[in-house]
Specification:
With about 400 residues, the chain is α+β, with helices and mostly antiparallel strands. It is about 45% helix and about 20% strand. It contains nine helices and 13 strands. The chain has helices at about 5-15, 20-35, 75-80, 100, 135-210, 215-245, 255-265, 290-305, 365-375; strands spanning about 40-45, 50-60, 65-70, 85, 110-115, 120-125, 250-255, 275-280, 285, 315-325, 325-335, 380-385, 390-395. Helix 1 runs antiparallel to helix 2 (about 20-35), helix 6 (about 215-245) runs parallel beside helix 9 (about 365-375) and helix 7 crosses helix 8 (about 290-305). The two termini are about 45 Å apart. The structure holds adenosine-5'-diphosphate (ADP) and magnesium ion.
Length: about 400
């Protein structure tokens, strides 16, 4: 293989990786000169009815940055006629605007169009001594021009895709932001009138004095309960919405340490109950410790709650084998369990499968868990059967070093 062909192959390889027009021009201006052995090369782009000399690589300045009418330069002729021009003596050729060449070193040239159908540019090669470049050289330059046209189309495509992705991402972020702001202000603004209701209910009770009918007192109590429940729902919703807005930290997290804190906090809930804890070894992971503590608090809290009717509750927290390079943590209990047909729904806001009378709650915990795990790039899923207990799994990134 001669050196021109070899150089063409390298250029083709480089072009296949070029993502921008600038990168394409950078590759081509050097490659053209190497392939032709010329003293200079230019990269010309069609700009409406002008030829724009966008780039060059030459022993002395040519026309970089200049624009000429299509009808008054050889690159224009090449594009309009959709074929190469090979000129041994430029001053003897009527197609050449001699004045533009006089300040330059150029005596001979070979110019090829980029894309023969509807050309978008041209590649010029110039010699300081008179010569007739051989047909093989012109063929190699034409091949380079063909690959250049593909590379430019790819770069255009890539740029428009990139633009679209950016636009979509921005739209999504905006929509998401609006939604967050909305739910935040809703939950925030809803609580004030609720507080007032609670306050007035207290006053009303006092005003009625000790003598109201038993029925009225019972109804007032019901209203009060509802107000308290709504306040709890809104408080949870507010926490959920805050979580979506909070910045996320990322550091090495000791899950075992978090777990013992969570267990400690739950000790009040299991007073007088018989709970067998089985704590496996937990790995260190990468994430936000405050958020991951919420995950454990929700899942272990559920395990404690839904085993309440078991004479002997068993709760197990451990690590399953690493999956796709990520830690898999599970929380298992022998409690009420649920029908797997609803497993996905449980992770939605306010979704509950159990009666408020049996197991109290707001149905926000698992939605929070999923949101936090998703923000960490992980997954969460459940496995259960009615009366057979439940296992919740989630994945998290291992710390950088342990991977
Ligand atoms: N460990 C579990 N065992 C049985 N059911 C569960 C368990 N964890 C969650 N669930 C079901 O998923 C629902 C949603 O859970 P969650 O979002 O934490 O809300 P909450 O705890 O406030 O009820 C629960 O109401 C329950 O029906
Ligand atoms: Mg819960």
């Amino acid at each position: 293989m001669d050196s021109g062909t070899e150089r063409l192959l390298t250029a083709v390889q480089d072009l296949s990786r070029a993502r921008t027009l600038d990168a394409v021009m950078e590759i081509v201006r050097h490659a053209a000169r190497d392939i032709s052995g010329a003293d200079g090369a230019t990269f010309v782009l069609r700009d409406g009815d002008k030829c724009f000399y966008a780039e060059e690589d030459a022993i002395a300045p040519l026309w970089k940055g200049k624009r000429f009418p299509m009808s008054a330069c050889i690159s224009g002729w090449v594009m309009l006629n959709r074929k190469a021009a090979v000129i041994e003596d430029i001053y003897a050729d009527p197609r050449i605007p001699a004045d533009a060449y006089r300040p330059t070193f150029v005596k001979s040239l070979a110019m090829v169009p980029i894309r023969t159908q509807d050309p978008i540019g041209a590649i010029g090669n110039y010699w300081a001594t008179k010569r007739m470049p051989p047909p093989e050289t012109v063929r190699l330059l034409e091949a380079l021009a063909n690959f250049t046209s593909i590379a430019i189309e790819n770069a255009d495509l890539y740029a428009s895709l990139e633009r679209r992705v950016q636009e979509r991402t921005r739209d999504l972020a905006e929509a998401n932001h609006e939604l967050e702001a909305f739910s935040y202000s809703v939950s925030h603004d809803l609580r004030t009138p609720l507080r007032h209701m609670d306050g007035f209910l207290g006053l009303l009770k006092k005003a009625l004095g000790p003598g109201p009918g038993a029925e009225a007192a019972r109804l007032l109590g019901k209203v009060e309960d509802s107000v308290k429940r709504m306040d709890l729902l809104i408080a949870d919703l507010l926490a959920f919405s805050r979580m979506g807005r909070a910045e996320m930290r990322s550091c090495r997290v000791d899950l075992a340490g978090l777990l013992s804190q969570v267990k400690e906090e739950l000790s009040e809930d299991i007073r007088g109950r018989s709970v067998a804890w089985n704590m496996g070894e937990l790995p260190e992971v990468e994430g936000d410790p405050d958020l991951l503590r919420q995950v454990l608090a929700n899942l272990v809290g559920n395990a404690v709650k839904f085993t309440r009717k078991q004479p002997q509750a068993a709760i197990e927290v451990g690590a399953a084998p690493v999956k796709d390079g990520r830690a898999v943590i599970y929380v298992r209990d022998n409690g009420a369990g649920f029908d797997m047909a609803y497993a996905e729904r449980l992770f939605g806001l306010f979704q509950r499968l159990h009666l408020q009378e049996d197991y109290e709650g707001t149905g926000i915990g698992l939605a929070n868990v999923r949101r936090i795990i998703k923000r960490h790039g992980g997954e969460v899923w459940a496995d259960s059967a009615p009366g057979k207990g439940a296992t919740f799994y989630f994945t998290l990134a291992l710390p950088a070093k342990a991977r």
